[in-house]
Write a structure and sequence with these properties.
The complex is a heterodimer of chains A (about 100) and B (about 725). With about 100 residues, chain A is α/β, with parallel strands linked by helices. Chain A has a single domain, classed as 2-Layer Sandwich (Transcription Regulator spoIIAA). In chain A, about 40% of the residues lie in helices and about 35% in strands. In chain A, strands 1, 2, 3, 4, 5 and 6 form a six-stranded mixed β-sheet that branches. Chain A is globular, with a radius of gyration of 12 Å. In chain B, a hairpin with a 2-residue loop joins strand 24 and strand 25. Chain B is elongated and about 120 Å long. Classes of the chains: A alpha/beta (about 100), B alpha+beta (about 725).
């Protein structure tokens, strides 16, 4: 799993590439640490190249969202595939996040 | 004429009498059978309840320790930097505020110097704490005349013990009446002298939710007590932190038991005990949360555990009563119809036919639809029973559980009603016991103990019981005095069996178990002595030699039996059949390419890196079964969650373990079985995640199991032979 973080103005974008399974989630949770600091602005999780997510991946998303909610920022989830949309629907995450195509 | 009428009356009286006796005997047997069944079911249900309670206690204990660990490691990890800062006392508050801001579970932290240890600051204790409701960390000094920190428990205890210490829980009035506890640890300076104490406060609010929400059974509740017995969580909120377990025990009606439990809890023991509370029997299971010295217990009302069984028992008794009434009615109307028959021979016929009605009822218990498992390609099975004119006590039975065929054949000693009644009991015992027990030896031993106990009529049963693993033909069997079955492979030979005593002779007998393998196409042919000892008119026996010569390799089970019937019939000729003739023929067809292709398995170590091997496994399964891409992703997700759960939590940290995953393709479903030898844990007992909650209320964890349940159509857990077995079925 690869994570590329870029910042422009107050928007921090994390491009997630590959499978976000349980072992990958352990690396990713460290890789997105800088996003926690930027949680008062806008965080974009670019999932166009993410092929899979497990519950430990969902935890990372939720942790970021909680941080943003308490600091007044927002989290946008971008470009999730149909399979991942299915997982978001089952877990009620569709209602928690702003989803963009 | 007068005389004739009299005779008539006495006959009717007598036949009514016989009918009544028969109904009575049937009633007694049915009741005895139900009682035995009730007893075994009750034991199984109790064990299940204990297992559930223990696994719930265990998982709650682990969740508590998880938070406790976070606070402890936060303190332990900061000890070295705190030691270093002892020489720069102005920077102490930097350490405490870092500790609080980096660890969300820690509400407050202080480094308190030992009075008089440093000249510059005789008293010094900077205290950093999370400002309630905000994310910022504030610092104040605890070195005030009102507070006198050197006399507080959190300060004195770690110095006295020279080790980390969890304080008694206390209510923090400053922070909004929250239940708190503090972990403190002594800091030594470079000369090894204890110079200060580092602490972390954690809030215990979550405990109320965590422990209070344990719901193993609808009316069960939980209690958490501190080291000194103070109630931290209990259903009566007014008692929390105001009463101790000992005081609460004083108020209960069953004071003796309550005190025993409270002593055990405070003594840090793990166990269970029954108590009468509010007039009802309750089962109490308790366990200790180490380090903190807390003790946790679950109280389950007996009615929650056994209530359902009692209701079922009631319905069964009612049905039995109805059945008996019908039997009585049939017999009585039968007796009425016989009014005209006065001859002695006809009376005899009547009694015999009544016995046959009874026999018919019992025969109806045996599986009689063939082929019994039409969907299975790995098994060909046929059985038959030809009752003799006089009722006897033969039986056979079989069923499939966990991909194993459980089967038995038996012959009760003697004939007539007593034999057939013992047969009914035997069959019922086999079904009840084999549903829980996997080993033929255990099944036979338990049946033996049940029948031998109170066996005043000295009836005994010769019995052969076996299990055939349909995956690989592994045959495990135990013989209790029965004829050796024949194995039909390339040729025909008797199975090499140990004789053992028949069932019912001696309580506590130790039976020996044996094993072998059936190869593809092999047949095991079981029979009772009604076959081998069938007599012709010259009073010769059919015998094992004729029997073996009749069996032929390669025949289907049904043809094997048909040929045998023909041979016996020809041999016996006009002679009357003197004993029940029972045969059970099992042909193993498994292990063929088709079945092998439909079963796959993988063994994973308890290392999270193994998840990629799981993905490969699911990928190749999907290709071979041509599963759609969304289905593959879902299956992968559910299996990853289930496997991750085992990898992370089943084995103690640092201990190597493994998890086996087996996938079986059924005609309309995929069945996955996950097996591990870790500690008992029932993931299906976890509460359902609430997906409607908002961001703030939504807990971070708990989604894994939720996804498994959401994706799979059936998720079932059981614990057998020290293993956790999770079966997941997905219809396709």
């Amino acid at each position: 799993m690869e994570v590329i973080i870029t910042t422009q103005d107050s928007v921090t974008t994390a491009r997630l590439i590959g499978r976000l399974d349980t072992p990958a989630a352990q690396e990713v949770s460290q890789a997105v640490e800088p996003l926690m600091a930027a949680a008062d602005g806008t965080i974009v999780l670019d999932c166009r190249e993410m092929t899979y997510i497990s519950s430990s991946g969902l935890r990372i998303f939720l942790t970021l969202k909680k941080a943003a909610a308490s600091k007044g920022g927002k989290v946008i989830v971008k470009g999730i595939s149909d399979n991942i949309r299915q997982v978001f629907m089952m877990t009620g995450f569709l209602n928690l996040f702003e989803i963009e195509d | 004429m007068k005389q004739k009428v009299k005779k008539d009356d006495s006959f009717i009286r007598r036949s009514r009498w016989t009918g009544l006796m028969l109904v009575l005997v049937a009633a007694v047997t049915l009741e005895a059978t139900s009682l035995i069944q009730f007893f075994f079911s009750q034991n199984a249900i109790r064990q299940e309840a204990a297992l559930r309670a223990e696994s719930e206690l265990e998982s709650t204990r682990l969740e508590i320790l998880n938070v406790i660990d976070q606070a402890e490691s936060a303190v332990r990890n900061n000890i070295w930097i705190a030691r270093w800062c002892l020489d720069f006392q102005d920077s102490l508050s930097l350490v405490t505020s870092r500790l609080v801001s980096d660890n969300p579970v820690v509400m407050g932290s202080t480094i308190a110097l030992v009075p008089g240890r440093y000249r510059r600051y005789p008293l010094c204790a900077p205290y950093s704490y999370q400002e309630p409701g905000r994310d910022s960390v504030l610092t104040k000094s605890l070195a005030t005349p009102e507070y006198d920190y050197p006399s507080q428990e959190w300060f004195t205890k770690p110095i006295e013990l020279e080790d980390g210490y969890w304080s008694e829980p206390y209510v923090d009035e400053g922070g909004g009446n929250i239940l708190m506890t503090t972990f403190s640890m002594p800091i030594r300076d470079e000369h090894g002298v204890i110079s200060a104490v580092l602490t972390a406060d954690i809030s215990l609010d979550w405990l109320t939710d965590l422990v209070g929400n344990i719901k193993v059974y609808p009316k069960a509740f939980s209690i958490l007590a501190s080291r000194s017995g103070k109630l931290m969580v209990c259903p009566a909120e007014s008692l929390i932190m105001h009463r101790t377990v000992q005081e609460a025990a004083d108020d209960l009606e069953d004071t003796a038991a309550a005190h025993r439990i409270s002593r055990a809890m405070l003594g840090g023991e793990t166990g269970s005990e029954d108590i009468v509370y509010q007039g009802k029997v309750q089962h109490v299971f308790y366990s200790q949360v180490e380090r903190t010295g807390w003790s946790m217990s679950i109280v389950i009302p007996d009615s929650d555990i056994n209530g359902h069984l009692r209701r079922v028992g009631g319905v069964v008794s009612l049905l039995q009563l109805l059945g008996l009434l019908m039997l009585a009615f049939i017999l009585l109307s039968y007796a009425r119809n016989q009014r005209k028959n006065r001859e002695l021979t006809e009376k005899k016929n009547k009694i015999e036919s009544e016995l046959h009605i009874a026999r018919g009822i019992q025969m109806a218990m045996l599986p009689k639809i063939f082929p019994p498992f039409p969907e299975r390609k790995d098994l060909d099975l046929f059985a038959s029973i030809v009752p003799a004119k006089e009722v006897g006590g033969d039986l056979y039975d079989f069923f499939i559980r966990d991909e194993k065929l459980f089967f038995c054949i038996a012959d009760v000693s003697g004939k007539g009603v007593p034999a057939s009644l013992v047969m009914a009991v035997t069959r019922s015992l086999f079904r009840t016991i084999a549903t829980h027990q996997d080993s033929p030896k255990q099944i036979i031993q338990m049946m033996n103990d049940a029948i031998a106990d109170n066996n005043e009529s000295n009836m005994f049963v010769t019995l052969f019981c076996g299990t055939l693993d349909l995956k690989d033909g592994h045959l495990v069997f135990c013989n209790a005095g029965h004829n050796a079955p024949e194995i039909i492979s390339d040729g025909v030979r008797p199975l090499d069996v140990l004789p053992n005593l028949p069932v019912g002779v001696l309580t506590g007998m130790d039976f020996k178990e044996q094993e072998t393998f059936l190869h593809e196409g092999d047949t095991i042919f079981l029979y009772t002595d009604g076959l081998s000892e069938a007599e012709n008119q010259a009073q010769e026996l059919f015998g094992e030699q004729r029997l073996e010569a009749t069996l032929q390799p390669g025949l289907a089970a049904v043809d094997q039996l048909r040929t045998m019937h023909r041979a016996v019939h020809t041999f016996v000729g006009e002679a009357e059949q003197s004993d029940d003739l029972t045969m059970l023929c099992i042909r193993f067809l498994g292990g063929n390419a088709e079945t092998a292709e439909k079963e796959r398995s993988i063994v994973l170590r308890n290392d999270i890196g193994q998840i990629s091997r799981l993905a490969d496994f699911v990928g190749s399964l999907a290709r071979e079964e041509q599963l759609s891409e969304p289905l593959t992703v879902s299956l992968n997700l559910a299996l990853e969650e289930a496997v991750t759960n085992v990898i992370m939590y089943a084995y103690p940290q640092g201990q190597e373990g493994q998890v086996d995953l087996q996938a079986v393709r059924r005609p309309d479903a995929l069945e996955f079985t996950l097996t591990d030898s870790g500690k008992p844990f029932d993931p299906t007992a976890a509460p359902e995640a609430d997906t409607s909650l908002g961001v703030q209320e939504r807990p971070i964890g708990g989604l894994g199991i939720f996804l498994v349940r959401k994706i799979m159509d059936t998720v079932a857990y059981r614990r057998t032979n020290g293993k956790n077995i999770l079966t997941m079925i997905k219809h396709i």
